[in-house]
Amino acid sequence: MADTTTVTPGGGSSPAPGNRRDKSSGRVRTRGLPDWSIPYVLLVPGLLVIAGLLLYPMFQLGVMAFQRVGLAQVRGTRPAEWVGLENFERVLGNEIFWSALRNTVVFAFVAVSLTLIVGTAVGVLLHRLGKKMSLFVVIGCMFAWAVPPVAQGVIWRSLFDAEAGIVNWALNLLPDWLAAPPDGQPSWTGTPWLNDTPGLYTALVVCVVWAGFPFIAVSVLAGLKGIPTELYEAARVDGSGPWRTFRKITLPLLKPVFAVLTVLSIIWDFKVFSQLYVLMNGPTNRDGFNLSMYAVAEAFRPPQKLGTGAAISVVLTIILLVVTVVYVRQIVKQEEM
Amino acid sequence: MTPLARKRLGKILLNAAGVVVFLYAAFPVYWMVSTGFKENDQIFTTEFIPFPTHFTFEHFAKVLTEGVANNSIWLYMRNSAIVALGTVFIGSAFALLSATAIARFRFKGRSVFLVVLLIVQMLPAEGLLIPLYMMVKRVGLGDQLIGLIVTQVALTLPFGVWMLRTFVAAVPKTLEEAAWIDGASRMTTFWRVLFPLVAPGLVATSIFSFITAWNDLVFALYLMSGSEGYTMPVALQYFFGQKGVEWGAIMAGSTLMTLPVVAFFLLVQRRMVSGLVAGAVKG
């Protein structure tokens, strides 16, 4: 019986009997490969892409952060000049960097919290709704989720439009004690939301939460479906109210789901780009930059300063890597890889 | 209030909340589509006009004929489709090979590879853009769609492998063993046994890659400098002109860009969740 254990799919360690060889002519090369090498051969294209187009560029990014790289270097007419810490000094000494960092962090904190709260609430709601109603709401959520980031920006830019936007129209309907028009204005109409940083980021938060909550809701719903109903029955028998049941049963059991969802949301919201690009009409308003927008603006707006852009990207990447480590640990802990 | 009445009231409130969530999620999308069909005097107004009372196709006609930045929207749709489909074909083939390797074999360096996969899919695209821009320009692929495809393959591959690996692992090994015992070679086993069974997963992964490449703004924005090479997300920016915003046209364009994504999305969303949250969700 020992022989049967050596039969493994796609690469048994037993030498193939000779009579198999004549069944097909196209397999001579595969057959020639030693078994241990098969997975490595399969990995070659993927490894080349990951090493050549992700890891090497990351290394290049680190190098470029210490160089002066302009138009001449892009064209290849002059080699990049080594400037030491100059790029970092210039970036860290610039007010825009600090306002971009503040915008990035504050935005991520607010957007992640709101997305998680709204998403969880909707997930719990979906779990309690009847089958048909639940499907109806999920389909609605799919629309928000599926809209491309650029179109999301377009939609909310129109909704926040100063003259024709629905947001100003809706705020006008509210009584003054709840939403008084800005100083010196008879009504909300004409309020240019997207021209100053607080208004711009309000719109961005609304946009990103709107597009991001469906993923959280559907994930939480999947997690809720995995909790055995006996637990809830037992809680009800013991006289536990809905809020207490949610805190003592649902939340602890969904903790791993929330850990992953939180980290993913942080990573996504830290590098939000397309929506901000549309809402602020391209990298124009420097006070409204976040880190990705600042890096791209420095690198590509003439005069091109790719080295400075790289230095900003390095800062952003380091922050994201720290968050990613938490995500990887969480996944490795949960999953038998 | 009797318990029965209370229960009924609770149910009504729950359903009402469901309707509110539906409206919150779907209204902005509806607004985009309906604005694309409105006449200009119904768009540029401080009134709230939920339905276009005079349906017009002028905006759709305009973006498809006159277009923006000297080209019809068709050209940009075509460019987007070339990039997205190119990414799908190259990326899926690579992803399938890698996924088979990690799901079917135990080898040295496997867990390192898995951790690297997880890490690289979180790298900021805007950071990668700067060195990739240099590389693409240096090898002479700047302004060419193929250069864009290469970058999108790189950006979508890690998640593609990660997602596809669960599909490969889900195919029972015994099926391949049976084929192997019956004398099938590795290649035959792969094409005749594994491939058909993994095909649904391959479709899901392909749709994910398609959407990512289709939606990309930042790479297309800086790698393509001539308007003939713009993709939809870049072209849409040109409706926000100096003379004011043509909301009708831009909403028509956004609707056209959103349609294929919504269609694919409805097919694939379940897999997206399981791929991202991995073992965290058991259900």
Automatic annotation (TrEMBL), chain A:
Keyword Transport among record annotations: yes
InterPro entries reported in the protein's UniProt record: MetI-like, MetI-like_sf, UgpAE/MalFG_permease
Low complexity: bias regions: 1-18
Keyword field contains Transmembrane: yes
Region (Disordered): 1-29
Membrane topology: Multi-pass membrane protein
Keyword tags: Cell membrane, Membrane, Transmembrane, Transmembrane helix, Transport
Segments passing through the bilayer: 37-59, 105-126, 133-151, 200-224, 253-270, 310-328
Positions in coiled-coil regions: none
Residues of the ABC transmembrane type-1 domain: 101-327
Highest taxon above the source species: Bacteria
Compartments where found: Cell membrane
Cellular compartments per GO CC: plasma membrane
PANTHER family: BLL4140 PROTEIN, DIACETYLCHITOBIOSE UPTAKE SYSTEM PERMEASE PROTEIN DASB
Record-stated family: Belongs to the binding-protein-dependent transport system permease family.
Name of protein: N,N'-diacetylchitobiose transport system permease protein
Provenance organism: Nonomuraea maritima
TrEMBL record, chain B:
InterPro entries: BP-dep_ABC_trans_perm, MetI-like, MetI-like_sf
Any Gene Ontology biological process: transmembrane transport
Major place of residence: membrane
GO cellular component: plasma membrane
Positions of transmembrane segments: 12-33, 81-105, 112-133, 145-164, 193-214, 247-268
A Pfam entry, by short name: BPD_transp_1
SUPFAM superfamilies reported in the protein's UniProt record: MetI-like (SSF161098)
Membrane topology: Multi-pass membrane protein
Alphabetized UniProt keyword annotations: Cell membrane, Membrane, Transmembrane, Transmembrane helix, Transport
Start and end residues of each ABC transmembrane type-1 domain: 77-268
Gene3D superfamilies in the cross-refs: MetI-like
Compartment list: Cell membrane
Lineage: superkingdom: Bacteria
Family as reported in the entry's similarity comment: Belongs to the binding-protein-dependent transport system permease family.
Identification of the protein by name: N,N'-diacetylchitobiose transport system permease protein
Organism: Nonomuraea maritima
